[in-house]
C-alpha cells in the first residue's frame, strides 16, 4: 500500500473531468497537490487546496520547465499526467498541425515530464517515500481504430514508452504505470481539435474511473488495462 498522506503530487490537466476528480480523491487521501491547467480561473474554481500553475504543455520545453519550477519549491513524490486532446477523421484528411498538437500533448509532454522528474523522484525515494508516475493512455492505445489513427498513435506511443520506462526505473524504486480506461463520459470528444466524434455507446462514469485510478496508486498496481475498470 502506498500511503499518500503528505505526498506532494503533481496533477496535470487538473481542470478536466478526470484530472479534477483525480485531484479530489488524492486530496482526500491527504496528498499535497500541485495542479496545472491552461485556464487560471478554472484552476481556482476547483476549490482544492493546492499550488496552482497555469501553462500550456503543448509548448516546446513547457513540461521540463514545469518540473524545474515544481521541484525548486519542494520535494516531488508523484505525477499524474491527466492532460490530453483528441482528434477524429480519416488519415486522408489529417493535417500536420493536428498531428503535431496530438503528439505534443499526448506523447511528448508526458515523456518530458517523466524524464525531467527522474532526479526529483530519486530524491523522493531516498527520503523514504514511494515515488510514482501515472499516465492515462486509454483503451485506444490497445485498440487501433479507423477514424482515430493519429490520436491512437499518440496514445500507443505513450503506452510503449511507459512500458519500457517502467522496467528501467523500477530497479531505482520509481513506479511508473499506465492506465487505459474505456470510453469515459468526460466530454473530451465534444472538444476535439479536428473532426467530429463518431456515435459512441454510453461511456463510464468519470468519478468511478478517477476513483479506480487513485486506487491503482494506493494499491501499487503495475498496470491498469481497460478490463480492470469494469
Task: Describe the protein in words.
The two termini are 22 Å apart. By secondary structure, this protein is α/β, with parallel strands linked by helices. The longest helix has 31 residues, at 96-126. The mean pLDDT is 97. It contains six helices and six strands; from the N terminus they run E-H-E-H-E-H-E-H-E-H-E-H. Helices cover 41% and strands 13% of the residues. Helix 1 crosses helix 6, helix 3 (62-72) runs parallel beside helix 4 and helix 4 runs parallel beside helix 5. It is globular and about 50 Å long. Strands 3-2-1-4-5-6 form a six-stranded parallel β-sheet, sandwiched between helices. The chain has helices at 17-28, 40-45, 62-72, 96-126, 149-169, 206-218; strands spanning 8-12, 32-37, 50-54, 78-81, 132-136, 175-179.
The biggest beta sheet is recorded as: 6 strands, parallel
Number of strands: 6
Strand content: 5-15%
Name the overall outline. Answer: globular
Strand order of the largest sheet: 3-2-1-4-5-6
Keywords:
6 helices; globular; 13% strand
Topology:
Elements: E1 8-12, H1 17-28, E2 32-37, H2 40-45, E3 50-54, H3 62-72, E4 78-81, H4 96-126, E5 132-136, H5 149-169, E6 175-179, H6 206-218
Parallel strand pairs: 1-2, 1-4, 2-3, 4-5, 5-6
